[in-house]
Amino acid sequence: MNSNIQRMMEKHTDAEWDGWKMEFSVIPMVDHHLDNPNTQRRLIILGFLGFAIFFVAIMNYILISIATLSRRAKSVGVHKCSGASSGNIFSMFLIETGIIVVVSTLLTLLLMYVFNETIEDLLAVRLSSLFTWQTLWVPLLIVLVLFLVAGVLPGRIFSRIPVTQIFRRYTEGKKGWKR
Fold first, then answer.
1. Which residue intervals of 19-177 are DSSP H helices?
2. Which of 98, 125, 157, 162 matches a 20 to 30 Å C-alpha distance to 46?
3. Torsions phi, psi for 119 (to 5 deg)
């Protein structure tokens, strides 16, 4: 299409002016908008903030998992005594993390759908042009990496705990301070 435009403009107008050659072309609005430095800066800032918020949420999940180590270790011990292997415990934590990540991603998509107009006004670009097949790999990669970090770290910690360590200091009452 651009070559036809250039040919028609050369046919009906003077294509050279004062030693300069004029070229005419059509640029899609999405490409023109994304080439704007202000838009690029805004997308980088919003992307960094989105990643930071998601990363903090995943790290909070990891810290909560580690903080409840003593309580969860007992349930892991019961699973191991019932015949679960370390792989089963690890997959149990991965599935739990997967459910949390899928639910949070679905809630994010729901919020993006509900606040579609507000987001488009803030970004000054349509969401459909932001999430194209060429750019969709970035949020999917972030979700995958954070899923692996949030699932693998607690899963490895809990699956490596030996059963003898889990029930070693377990008492029914709070009399451990007397020892």
1. 29-34, 37-67, 69-81, 86-114, 116-123, 127-130, 137-159, 163-166
2. 98
3. -65, -45
Task: Render pLDDT for 56-110 as a digit per residue (tens, 0 to 9).
Answer: 887 887 788 777 767 777 788 888 888 888 889 899 888 988 998 899 889 989 9
What is Dmax (Cα atoms) for the chain? 99
Residue 9: which region, alpha, beta or left (left: phi > 0; alpha: psi -120 to 50)? Answer: alpha
What are the backbone dihedrals phi and psi of residue 117, each rounded to the nearest 5 degrees, phi first?
-65, -40
Please, which residues have CB within 8 angstroms of residue 139's CB and are 6 or more apart in sequence? 131
pLDDT tens for 37-62 read 887 888 888 888 888 887 888 788 77
Confidence grade of residue 111 (pLDDT, cut at 50, 70, 90): very high
Q: Find out whether 175 and 109 touch, Cβ atoms under 8 Å.
A: no
In which element (H, E) is residue 21 found?
strand 20-21
* Number of neighbouring beta carbons within 10 Å of residue 1: 7
Q: What is the DSSP string of 95-125?
A: HHHHHHHHHHHHHHHHHHHHTHHHHHHHHTS
Tell me the two tokens of residue 60. 């909070």
Which residues 6+ apart lie within 8 Å of 160 measured at CB? Answer: 86
